[in-house]
Design brief:
Chain A has 21 helices and no strands. Chain A has about 450 residues and is mostly helical. Chain B is an alpha/beta fold. Classes of the chains: A mainly alpha (about 450), B alpha/beta (about 150).
């Protein structure tokens, strides 16, 4: 709870930004400092994703996640990014920085976001660790990594949620190292950085493509939803999963339209990190990939190999953790009902679907995020932006089916929106975040004549 | 000409739907933006008004019944030692979460100390000390039936 802890957290996140910046340079190059600044949010989130995946791999092979090990890892990742970018002759920003004029609307909404960010920061600055899952296993796992260096056999077997990959605990342990102590109060601010990075990434990716009036309102709407206000800074994996999935969904959407290789490569890194954050990551990544495959069927020969390769890379990043679970005889986290068990619990199908939809459209949880997504999809389809429109529609439908399955396949879960009894409010966060990231793209596509660049 | 008119109509409809979407986001967002700032401000105020102990114990306040026991356990049990928490019916005050979760909360709070079923350091949460399997030397106790000690 000290200034020292805060400075430590800032340092950690600057390191993550540096790693992500060099990764982005390797993937696409950065033509100017303006572009680097615009894409700083995406760079940061890529740094988080790449670092997180590497942390998990290091822990699985038995490396100790000490402060020197973290610094060496980050230096190696940054060095690899710089070297790759240099070898691939990516454009570098040079020395010139010219300030571009931003629109009045952009400045106004940006100002509102900054005021909100400051209020959220203050709310998390002295927050205690109240969430049950937080003190029951997320933070104890982080403490185990911090105190013992690696995946301690006793704690990682005895603590609940043993099938969850240790990406978030590894970040929390890294935060403890940078803060100089296991400060579980200031730890909440690490999740503020993740949320700020997500918002900056979406804004940076879309600001050149979509008018500020179409870009900012959906984002600000998400930020003021009761669910984000109440749980946005909790020291658990749900929101990081939502942020990674949403950015991957946006990048895949952009890739479907623009076909730039770096977009699908970046999406692969984010999907790998999402699947290393929580097991739901597999389901949600599947929804994104299946939606993209379905809407690109007419260009299958050009699109599918690259998309499947990216999916394969993302999945491969999670294999070591699955191997470790098998080696240590830990549960894999599969559904309680098993493969055919769904049929013997068929009576839960309709209540599970009803719970999914009523949670997603619950004004007291997500305000009008889901209805707005449907309006944006309708606008895109009416404007004949079919690929983008159907991509978003399929993503929405598949995610609803996936969330329904999660309650249906776990008969011990009661059918309720009570967050402590059923994870549905948390699960629907991934779709709410993904919808928010994609909505400005859909609105921009349906409003081509009046915006700078049309998105087809 | 008819095709062109249809296209214009479709574009106009799409634009109208976009406007509906933006109006929806702006309208609901504007109202809730002010509510959000107020709520976040209240959260910040209530967090800052907490005592250091309440903030550090946080979720444990609904599980443990004596903050002093948590701090005493942390100061008495060496960081490299193991401990076991033994609960029983002699606890005078309890919450509905105490019995089920007090062990989990102490595991979180006392790390890196390890919980072990055969540990000689004992956190007795209303336990029957005659069942501990040795001579129990009390190092600290309160009036609720909680004590901390070692088996000899």
């Amino acid at each position: 709870m000290s200034a020292h802890s805060l400075v430590g957290l800032v340092a950690l996140n600057l390191v993550l930004l540096a790693v992500g910046g060099t990764t982005l340079y390797a993937l696409r190059g950065l033509r100017s400092w303006n572009e680097a600044l615009r894409l700083a949010g995406l760079a940061y989130m890529l740094g988080v994703a790449l670092t997180g995946v590497v942390f998990v791999l290091e822990l699985v092979v038995g490396l100790s996640l000490s402060l020197p090990a973290i610094l060496v890892t980050e230096a190696a990742l940054a060095g690899a990014g710089l070297l790759t970018g240099h070898v691939l002759r990516r454009p570098a920003p040079g020395t010139k920085l010219t300030l571009r004029r931003i629109s009045l609307a952009g400045a106004a909404f940006g100002g509102l976001a900054i005021v909100y960010g400051e209020a959220l920061f203050r709310s998390g600055r002295l927050a205690g660790l109240y969430e049950f899952d937080g003190w029951a296993f997320w933070v104890p796992k982080a403490k185990a990594i911090y105190f013992f260096g690696g995946l301690d056999h006793q704690f990682f077997a005895e603590l609940p949620g043993s099938s969850y990959p240790p990406l978030v605990p590894a970040f929390e342990a890294a935060s403890f190292h940078f803060m100089g102590a296991p400060d579980v109060v200031t730890l909440h601010l690490q999740f503020w950085f993740f949320l700020a990075g997500f918002v900056a990434a979406v804004v940076g990716l879309l600001s050149g493509r979509v008018h500020a009036l179409l870009l900012w309102p959906p984002i600000l709407l998400l930020l003021v939803t009761p669910h984000v206000l109440r749980y946005g800074l909790q020291a658990e994996g749900d929101f990081l999963l939502d942020e990674l999935i949403a950015l991957a969904a946006l990048l895949v959407g952009l890739w479907l339209v623009e076909q730039r290789g770096w977009q699908v490569a970046a999406a692969a890194v984010l999907l790998g990190a999402a699947m290393s954050t929580k097991r739901e990551g597999y389901l949600l990544a599947g929804c994104i990939v299946l939606s993209a495959l379905a809407v690109s069927v007419q260009r299958a020969r050009a699109v599918w190999p690259r998309l499947l390769l990216a999916t394969g890379v993302a999945l491969a990043l999670t294999v070591p953790w699955r191997v470790l679970l098998a080696v240590r005889n830990l549960p894999g986290g599969g559904p309680e009902a098993g493969g055919t068990g769904l049929f013997s619990h068929a009576d839960r199908a309709w209540p599970s679907l009803r719970l999914t939809l009523s949670t997603l459209f619950d004004f007291d949880i997500w305000l009008v995020v889901a209805p707005l997504a449907l309006v944006a999809i309708a606008a895109a389809l009416l404007a004949r932006r079919r690929q983008l429109g159907f991509y978003a529609l399929l993503l929405f439908a598949l995610a609803v089916a996936a969330f329904t399955w999660t309650t249906w396949a776990f008969p011990s879960l009661p059918i309720t929106k009570e967050a402590s009894l059923n994870p549905m409010p948390r699960l629907t966060g991934s779709l709410s975040f993904a919808a928010t990231a994609v909505v400005p793209l859909l609105l921009g596509a349906a409003w081509p004549a009046r915006t700078g660049r049309a998105v087809r | 000409m008819i095709t062109s008119a249809r296209k214009r109509l479709r574009n106009d409809t799409a634009s109208s739907v976009v406007l509906v979407g933006v109006a929806l986001a702006l309208g609901v967002g504007a109202i809730h933006y002010y509510k959000a700032l107020s709520q976040l401000g209240q959260t910040a105020s209530s967090n800052s008004s907490l005592s250091f102990d309440d903030r550090e114990i946080a979720g444990g306040n609904s599980v443990i019944v004596d903050q002093a026991a948590a701090y005493e356990a942390r100061s008495l049990i060496p960081v490299s030692a193991a401990y076991r928490l033994v609960s029983g019916q002699r606890l005078r005050v309890r919450t509905e979460l105490t019995e089920k979760y007090v062990g989990d909360w102490f595991r979180y709070f006392l790390m890196p100390r390890r919980p072990r079923p055969d540990a000689r350091w004992i956190i007795c949460y209303g336990c029957d000390t005659s069942d501990l399997g040795g001579v129990y030397v009390v190092r600290w106790h309160d009036d609720n039936g909680i004590s901390i000690g070692q088996l000899r």
